[in-house]
Write a structure and sequence with these properties.
This protein has three domains: about 50 residues, PAS domain (Beta-Lactamase, 2-Layer Sandwich), CATH 3.30.450; about 80 residues, Helix Hairpins (Orthogonal Bundle); about 150 residues, 2-Layer Sandwich (Heat Shock Protein 90), CATH 3.30.565. Helix content is about 45%, strand content about 25%. Strands 5-7-8-10-9 form a five-stranded mixed sheet, with helices on one face. A three-stranded antiparallel sheet has the order 1-2-3. InterPro entries: HATPase_C_sf (IPR036890), HATPase_dom (IPR003594), His_kinase_dom (IPR005467), HisK_dim/P_dom (IPR003661), HisK_dim/P_sf (IPR036097), PAC (IPR001610), PAS-assoc_C (IPR000700), PAS-like_dom_sf (IPR035965). This is Histidine kinase domain-containing protein. Keywords: Coiled coil, Phosphoprotein.
């Protein structure tokens, strides 16, 4: 309780001005101790008046805020440290991803150089084997028992030639010769090349092409090769029986087109998805794949400033999603 002595010491005017409604609630003010230490306090008080309405005193409660302020400061520091830790973790993840990309790029470059060297060394003798095998088969009668053996040599040498071609395609990875290209047209042309193959006779192909899509700036030949690799992989995963859905659309609020290719084949185990686009990685039986098709596809999409990802469940099939930038007006 505080009161003036015979009104000789009036209450401080600025303090009394706070009592507009005869009370103060949780007013933060600083007190000073005898030693001069500043002590933050919260003050709640009410005035006491006489019968004439004059202020005769003030009753109040003050609470020391030092511990509260300390706890708040500790909490703020902890939150700042947490935010800093999250920022460091994010920066570390970005650095790790960049390092992985650099290692991957260096590895691809080394593999490409090796592949190109091996392919060139093999190509010349392989060409000689094919030429002389064809000459031999021309000299043999149709009923000659040796003819089947020579034809087998031609078949296997031709397969080797195809592998060498893929090695060279992977090693060279030429920059695309871009021009305004309709993605629906590219997909239609790709499907026209495969739909009559025996592997596709029992596969139902469904097309959901969004009409009037903007063009992309792309190399039609390279894009056909990329889509062909994915579609052939899907057909092989379904073992020639199943459903293939190919869809196109423009992503909302984006400058990208999206192409999805979905099959209901055997699916891809999670541990294989991460390695799917690595060169020479394959789950096919020996002699049934080089492991270069999807690596070449990923390279083509990347050189078109696009992206490719895969989602799959074992036993349910897989979906390849490709995103390619639309043609920029004025370019």
């Amino acid at each position: 309780l505080a009161s003036p002595k015979e009104k000789r010491r009036p209450f401080n005017g600025s303090y009394l001005s706070k009592f507009k409604e005869s009370s103060i609630q949780d007013l933060e003010i600083d007190f000073k101790s005898k030693s001069g230490e500043k002590i933050p306090m919260t003050l709640s008080s009410s005035v006491m008046r006489n019968s004439e309405g004059e202020i005769i005193g003030v009753i109040g409660v003050a609470r020391d805020l030092r511990e509260t302020k300390w706890l708040l400061a500790e909490a703020a520091a902890t939150e700042a440290e947490r935010a800093k830790a999250q920022e460091l973790e994010r920066a570390y993840k970005e650095l790790k991803d960049l390092q992985s990309q650099l290692i991957h790029s260096e590895r691809l470059a080394c593999i490409g150089q090796l592949a190109a060297g091996v392919a060139h060394e093999i190509n010349n003798p392989l060409g000689g084997i094919l030429v002389y095998s064809h000459l031999l088969v021309e000299d043999l009668n149709v009923d000659d028992s040796k003819r089947a053996n020579v034809e087998r040599i031609i078949k296997e040498a031709t397969r080797c030639k195809d592998i060498v071609k893929r090695l060279l395609d992977f090693a060279r990875q030429p920059q695309p010769k871009v021009e305004p290209t309709g993605i629906n047209v590219v997909l239609e042309e790709t499907l026209s090349l495969v739909k009559d193959q025996a592997l596709f006779h029992n596969i139902k192909i469904t097309k959901k092409f969004q009409p009037s899509l903007p063009n992309i700036m792309g190399d039609r030949s390279q894009l056909q090769q990329a889509f062909m690799n994915i579609i052939l992989n899907a057909a092989e995963a379904m073992e020639g029986k199943g459903s293939l859905l190919i869809a196109t659309d423009a992503l909302p609020d984006s400058q990208f087109l999206e192409i999805t290719i979905t099959d209901n084949g055997c699916g891809i185990p999670p541990e294989n998805i991460k390695r799917l686009f690595e060169p020479f990685f394959t789950t096919k039986k020996a002699g049934h794949g080089t492991g270069l098709g999807l690596a070449i596809t990923a390279g083509i999409i990347e050189r078109h400033n696009g992206s490719i990802e895969v989602k799959s469940k074992v036993g349910e099939g897989a979906t390849f999603t490709i995103k390619l930038p639309m043609e920029t007006k004025g370019k």
